[in-house]
Amino acid sequence: EVQLVESGGRLIQPGGSLRLSCDVSGFTVKSSYMGWVRQAPGKGLEWVSVIYMSGSRYYAESMKGRFTISRDDSKNTLYLQLNSVRADDTAVYYCARCAMIRGVLFDSWGQGTLVTVSS
Amino acid sequence: DELTQPPSVSVAPGQTATITCGGSNIEGKSVNWYQQKPGQAPLLVIYDDSDRPSGIPGRFSGSYSGTTATLTISRVEDGDEAAYYCQVWDGMADHVLFGGGTKLTVL
Fold this sequence. Notes:
- The structure holds 2 protein chains of 2 kinds.
- Chain A is mainly β.
- Chain A has strands at 3-7, 11-12, 18-25, 33-39, 45-51, 57-59, 67-72, 77-82, 91-100, 104-109, 113-117.
- Chain A contains no helices and 11 strands.
- Chain B has strands at 8-11, 17-22, 32-36, 43-46, 60-65, 68-73, 82-90, 95-98, 102-106.
- In chain B, strands 1, 3, 4, 7, 8 and 9 form a 6-stranded mixed sheet that branches. A 3-stranded antiparallel sheet of chain B has the order 2-6-5, with no helix packed on it.
- Classes of the chains: A mainly beta, B mainly beta.
């Protein structure tokens, strides 16, 4: 059974740093495309980042240079490092397994972890 | 870069709901659709314009014409009440685009 479990979300002050984790089971991160999607309170889905099997990484413009996606193949875990966070980074962050079918799509999702940026 | 969806759609049980997703960014791209119920993670319901993942009822279907993709839900049930999002992949920029979402209300 495919499972993704996010952790690491918490209350953090503006300008701070935070690392989110996504532990997966039922498949391996090194053999999958993986991504992060976030959702601000009461808002729609917003793509954050994706990492290919090759290790290539892509980011939404507003997060480029502040967020870093990575994976630990030995732990079968996906990460998202958030730096210089702002109030508008407040959101539930979802980890998702991606498939590449004429483009990236998200075929399995975790339940999300809440990041709240506030002083 | 935008994918335009109507903010809301209302339909009576047993009727057909249609949710559109439009924009120049759609042309020539594969469109995926997600259902999100309150407090839950999104669920893929249609991929590559019109294919259904296993476990998704046949009442859900997708189509695509020109610059508009459409999600159609036939014989709507109370349990279909949710937000629905379209999504495409911009291969030129290696970016993902989501539509703004449509709230489906079952009357």
